[in-house]
Design goal:
By secondary structure, the chain is an alpha+beta fold. It contains seven helices and 21 strands.
């Protein structure tokens, strides 16, 4: 569940052509349910106000705004640039952090243009009243464009629903009472962290359908074009065919009310961004052979999956919907992460996903018994005024897969910011998606 195996996950990035030119950020410091296929840039639920005059909507990045927002100038300090990466297509095999080591032809890496990445690095890609916008260069990116107020030094998103996004254990019964035993289910922490994150997008934009996603889910070996593994999962069968397990927006099969398992399985097994021939974000096959258990969901698949879902499945623009990525080897990682968290959590109201080494996490620590496992978590809060400054994260790997350190289902955890940076930099860490 939490054991994303980044040490064998794929990446297709060229370091030689990847690093984007520095852009200084000026900032004030402190079968599933049917899914819509059309573009849905504006929330399907009522929003307050309209997009401010002078803000650019996607597809107009090179246009000049006709007027400027009425935000007042403020005294500002300079934060070093967030180092984002250009993703060429196709990319050569390379090793970045613990993302290793082959290009996946079924999941081609989406291309993000240098122009868009510069805007993203500068904090100018934002969400205003349920719509993606590009902030004018004259606007302080750490001033909320909807309210005109500074991003606070301390902020925590509402976790009353998301703290109960707990992954399905490796054995038990599904919502229909069918027994299963499936080691793949232990590897879905990336999909769990994405489910947490996408719930906030559902509130902002009306999609994706995190709270209503439901259906039967079968491990997608057939979609990968490989045989079912010899040492295979035990899942329900109907009429001689593998039925899979059934999950929805909420269930009580683990002895508590868990949320978002239908979305978790949809992301792991069913979603299919445009240009992909493989289904699901988790890796179920390598080099033409089935994998059991799966390798989990690597950071770049998290990046692709988030952009595909928040775009509303817009086949033309999804690679540049909102998210970019920073790798663990960046020398400015600590400042990049803090700026990204303030922009995403404090300004736009959505989490940052960090791909980390579990060894450094307080809820995993058990002395020398603490494992080094690649893990994904959603950062939902920060406190830059605390001593030391802290981040808050949700833990989708509940009590079933991690009984260390008094870990409980539904916990949220506070960690020193420097410690989370160590978790990203440690050998099983990878980077973050923001």
């Amino acid at each position: 569940m939490s054991a994303i195996r980044f040490a064998t996950a794929f990446v297709a990035i060229s370091l030689a052509s990847a690093l984007v030119s520095a852009v200084v950020i000026t900032a004030v410091l402190p079968g599933p349910t049917p899914y819509p296929t059309a573009s849905r840039r504006v929330a399907a639920v009522p929003t307050v106000g309209a997009t401010p005059t002078g803000y650019l909507v996607p597809g107009t990045l090179s246009a000049s705004p006709t007027s400027q927002p009425t935000l007042q100038p403020t005294a500002a300090l300079t934060i070093p640039p967030i180092n984002v990466f250009l993703t060429p297509s196709p990319g050569p095999k390379t090793d970045i952090g613990s993302d290793l080591d082959w290009a996946d032809p079924g999941r081609p890496l989406p291309v993000q243009s240098l122009e868009w990445l510069k805007l993203k690095a500068a904090g100018r890609i934002a969400v205003v009243n349920g719509q993606f916008v590009t902030l004018p260069a004259s606007v302080n990116p750490l001033v909320n464009p909807s309210t005109g107020t500074h991003v606070p030094a301390k902020w925590l998103l509402d976790t009353s629903w998301t703290r109960w996004v707990i992954e399905v254990p490796g054995s038990g019964t599904d919502e229909k009472g069918n027994y299963f035993a499936n080691l793949n289910y232990w590897e879905f922490c990336g999909d769990g962290a994405m489910t947490v994150t996408l719930w906030y997008w559902q509130r902002l934009m009306g999609h994706p359908n995190v709270t209503g996603m439901a259906g039967y889910y079968v491990d997608p070996y057939a979609a990968e074009g490989v045989a079912w593994p010899i040492r295979s999962p035990t899942i329900p069968v109907s009429g001689g065919k593998r039925l899979g397990t059934y999950w929805s927006g909420s269930d009580t099969v683990s002895g508590f009310t868990a949320h978002g398992r239908g979305m978790e399985f949809y992301l792991a097994m069913k979603t299919q961004p445009a240009t992909w021939t493989s289904t699901g974000l988790s890796i179920f096959a390598k080099d033409g052979r089935p994998l059991y258990p799966t390798l989990g969901t690597p950071r770049l698949n998290i990046l692709a999956g988030l952009n595909w879902e928040v775009s509303g499945h817009d086949a033309s623009s999804w690679p540049e919907a909102y998210y970019s990525t920073v790798i663990r080897t960046e020398p400015t990682l600590a400042r990049d992460l803090n700026a990204a968290v303030m922009l995403d959590v404090g300004r736009d109201g959505v989490p940052v996903i960090a791909t980390v080494d579990s060894f450094e996490l307080p809820n995993w620590q058990d002395g020398t018994a603490t494992p080094h496992i690649g893990h994904a978590l959603a950062i939902v809060g920060y406190d830059n005024a605390a001593r030391p400054p802290t981040y808050t994260y949700t833990e989708t790997c509940g009590r079933a897969c991690n009984r260390r350190g008094g870990n409980q289902n539904g916990d949220i955890h506070v960690i020193p910011q420097s410690q989370l940076v160590l978790a990203i930099r440690d050998k099983e860490g990878s980077g973050f998606v923001w």
